[in-house]
Design brief:
The protein is 34% helix and 25% strand.
C-alpha cells in the first residue's frame, strides 16, 4: 500500500476499504501491520479485554479479522429488547456478542463499507443462526438508517479512520432515540498540541498511517467537543490506555442523546 501523503477524503476511504478487504480474505492480519509490536487478530482479543469465555464460541475467522482497540460492547451494556448499531462492524465480533445481550426481542445492525467484510460477517451470522443480527453496506458519515431508530451506537477503533468525524457524530446523534447512548472505543491523541479544539486530524499524513489508526486520531478535547457540538450530553472518557506511541491512547468514550 502506498505511503504517499494523503489529504483527500476519497483517497483515504479507498485505502481503508482496500486494506480491510485484504484483512477479510486473510491476505494481511489487519491495520496493525504498520507496527509489528501491536498484537492483532486473535491475540488482540485477549489483549484488549475480551474474556475468553465470551468469545470462545465465535468462528475463528471472526477473531482473526479483529482489529479493535477496546471492548465497547462491555461498557455499552446492551439490554434485552434494545436495538444496537455497530459502526464499522467488520467480521461481526461485537455484533455477535451483542446478539446474546439484546435477545430475541432485540436486534443488532452491523454497518460496514467493505464488501468482503460484509460477506464474511453474513456467512458467520448464518452459521451461528442469529436471526436478530443483520448487516448493511454503508458509510458512517451517511448511515442508511432512519432517524431515532436505535438505542445504542458502538464502534471499535473505526471512527479514527474517518476523514469527516463531525459527520459521524451528527449521524450517530440522528439515528439514536432520545436517551440513547453512544459508547465507542477509539484511538485519540493525549493532548491537543495545536492549542485549539479541532476535529480535523493535525497536518498531512501518509495513507499507511491513516490505515494504522494513527494519523486520523484527534485529541481528547476535540473528541469531546465534537460530540457536544453534535448535540450529545454527559460526554466522558470512561477509560484509556497507551496505544503504539506515547502521544496516543486507546480510549472508551461515552455520550447520551438527551
Amino acid at each position: 500500500m502506498s505511503a504517499e501523503c494523503c489529504d483527500d477524503a476519497g483517497n483515504i476511504k479507498s485505502a481503508v476499504r482496500e486494506l480491510y478487504a485484504r484483512v477479510a480474505t486473510g491476505e494481511v492480519s489487519c491495520c496493525g501491520e504498520a507496527d509489528a509490536e501491536m498484537p492483532m487478530g486473535a491475540e488482540n482479543i485477549r489483549s484488549i479485554g475480551y474474556a475468553k469465555e465470551a468469545v470462545e464460541e465465535l468462528p475463528p475467522d471472526v477473531l482473526s479479522a479483529n482489529a479493535g482497540c477496546g471492548t465497547p460492547i462491555l461498557d455499552a451494556a446492551p439490554e434485552p429488547g434494545e436495538t444496537l448499531l455497530d459502526l464499522g462492524s467488520g467480521a461481526g465480533l461485537d455484533c455477535f456478542l451483542a446478539a446474546k445481550e439484546v435477545g430475541p426481542r432485540g436486534s443488532v445492525i452491523g454497518l460496514d463499507m467493505t464488501d468482503a467484510m460484509l460477506e464474511k460477517a453474513e456467512r458467520n451470522r448464518r452459521s451461528m443462526g442469529l436471526p436478530n443480527v443483520s448487516f448493511r453496506k454503508g458509510e458512517m458519515e451517511n448511515m442508511p438508517l432512519e432517524g431515532g431508530s436505535v438505542d445504542v451506537v458502538i464502534s471499535n477503533c473505526v471512527i479514527n479512520l474517518s476523514p469527516d468525524k463531525a459527520a459521524v457524530f451528527r449521524e450517530s446523534f440522528r439515528v439514536l432515540r432520545p436517551g440513547g447512548r453512544f459508547v465507542v472505543s477509539d484511538v485519540i491523541r493525549a493532548s491537543d498540541t495545536t492549542g485549539k479544539e479541532t476535529i480535523e486530524p493535525p497536518g498531512e499524513a501518509s495513507i499507511a498511517d491513516w490505515c494504522a489508526c494513527i494519523a486520523g486520531a484527534i485529541s481528547e478535547d476535540a473528541y469531546v467537543a465534537g460530540l457536544r457540538e453534535a448535540g450529545f450530553v454527559d460526554v466522558e472518557i470512561i477509560g484509556r490506555k497507551p496505544y503504539v506511541t506515547p502521544e496516543l491512547a486507546s480510549a472508551t468514550i461515552r455520550a447520551v442523546k438527551p
